[in-house]
Amino acid sequence: VQFVESGGGLVQPGGSLRLSCAASGFTFSNYDMTWYRQTPGKERELVARILYDGSRTSYPDFVKGRFTISRDNAKNTVYLQMNNLKSEDTAVYYCNAGWFRPAYEYWGQGTQVTVSS
After folding, report:
1. Which residues of 1-31 are buried (b: 16+ CB within 10 A; e: fewer)?
2. What span, in angstroms and rounded, lies between the C-alpha atoms of 21 and 110?
3. What is the pLDDT along the chain (117 residues), one digit of tens a residue?
């Protein structure tokens, strides 16, 4: 199993980024996918999830209306469009399979998102 996250960077408050996660080593189209984020000293937290077929998405209140998760099963890739970014969105972002909990113990290297003026 492998997850390769990309697309992070430095952005000003109010800006946008689009993250990508290329997955391999399992049947991607059979799995729900989830984006998480983590900051030093804090637990990893869920920020978006999508059903295996893309028919349903779910977001916590703190990103609802700003983040959009999508997927391309032909490319084994899940995306996270992040708009109106805030300083508190600064974190390393990861993806994993699963809806209620990570399906795999393995995590990729993540992609750093820094929101700062």
Report:
1. eebebbbbeebeeeeebebbbbbeeeebeeb
2. 9
3. 999 999 999 999 999 999 999 999 999 999 999 999 999 999 999 999 999 999 999 999 999 999 999 999 999 999 999 999 999 999 999 999 999 999 999 999 999 999 999
Rounded to a whole number of angstroms, the CA Rg of the chain reads 13
21/39 Cα distance (integer angstroms): 19
Cα separation, 81 vs 69, whole angstroms: 6
- Tell me the pairing of strands 91-97 and 67-72: unpaired
**Residue with tokens 């946008």, as numbered in its chain:** 16
